[in-house]
Amino acid sequence: MKIVILGFGAVGQGVARVISMKKDYLRSKYGLKPQIVAVCDHSGAAIKEEGLDEKLLLETKTEKGKISLYPSYGAPGVDSLQVLEDVEYDCLVEVTPTDIDDGEPARSHILKAMEDGKDVVTSNKGPLALSFQELGDCAGKNGVELKFEACVGGAMPIINFAHETLAGCNIESIYGILNGTTNYILSRMANEGSSYEQTLQEAQEMGIAETNPYQDVEGIDAACKIVIMANSILNLPVTLKDVDVEGISRITSESIALAKKEGMLIKLIGEASPDALEVSPRLVRQGSPFAVEGTLNVATLKTDLADDVTVVGKGAGSVETASAILSDIVSIWKIRK
Ligand SMILES: NC(=O)c1ccc[n+]([C@@H]2O[C@H](COP(=O)([O-])OP(=O)(O)OC[C@H]3O[C@@H](n4cnc5c(N)ncnc54)[C@H](OP(=O)(O)O)[C@@H]3O)[C@@H](O)[C@H]2O)c1
Fold this sequence. Notes:
This protein has a seven-stranded mixed sheet with strand order 4-3-2-1-5-6-7, with helices on both faces. 42% of the residues lie in helices and 21% in strands. The model has no long low-confidence stretch (mean pLDDT 97). α1 packs antiparallel against α2 (54-64). A hairpin with a 2-residue loop joins β2 and β3. The protein has two domains: 2-155 and 318-336, Rossmann fold; 163-314, Dihydrodipicolinate Reductase, domain 2. The longest helix has 21 residues, at 10-30. The protein is of the alpha/beta class. The site of NADP nicotinamide-adenine-dinucleotide phosphate (NAP) has 25 residues, from α1 and β2.
């Protein structure tokens, strides 16, 4: 399977790393031989029809900062759409940064690949939260797969789990902690009695919160995930503007202490059901499955046959998120081989 990776940051590099680590396993277990034929970052591309060397890709990015400096096969200044036009490939892995205003550049990348008859795997929430139906229609029209497990909860299995493992169940609602940064801040505030501002600053210093934490702390990131799950799992044709969103920036250490006294914790909860699309701080009972600490994500699917099913997992991380992308690549391979 010839793969193009657009974006070579934490997740793109994680994908190269897991492909390198799992080469023998993928070949012996599934007969899958993934070949990375092109990679793009801001500097341009590295392109090699017979397959780039994953370790050399990682070394080049780490040591030189630019993938276009890949020895002999670097293509400085060649942009991602040009790569999709010129390179022969089977599957696009789209892992450029999320943009929630227009979904670009990922939206154009994904549409171009699907219109050219290529399968797509992405961790990019932007285009799906803004135009889920359009992208799904485009995949259907062109007979290609669009897979996005890594968009919701990183390594926490939820999309494919709902579609495959719970295939016979009607899923009525989804309820969960879908943002690791806010869960980390709220956990530390509860454990240490620290203020929101101080805890956010420490999370930024540790690289857990971004320099501009707006989308995480104001609940937008969780709302994107709610939209993706509402469309994909509950069949609700909604977009980001349909979600009622309130973040955690107004939560005080006093309100957390008060909740604790009553045996409760304050968590940022996302909910999707035919009656509610919402992200807001809510009380959960200490000791319940929702009392997860740190950057963990958790989600409960309410089903007709299996009752409540809860999954927990790491919501972010280079290799962790790449594991979800690899699982989508394997699913596509099983369909195509
Ligand atoms: N990190 C996680 O744990 C995680 C978990 C789940 C989902 N996600 C999602 O996965 C995606 C990637 O995340 P990340 O953490 O890997 O981001 P990142 O570290 O910021 O990397 C983004 C990469 O995209 C490249 N890029 C930006 N614009 C481009 C363009 N127009 N053409 C080609 N390359 C371009 C950047 O190039 P330069 O390197 O040259 O700047 C960089 O290599 C995001 O949408 C994110 O929301 C991330």
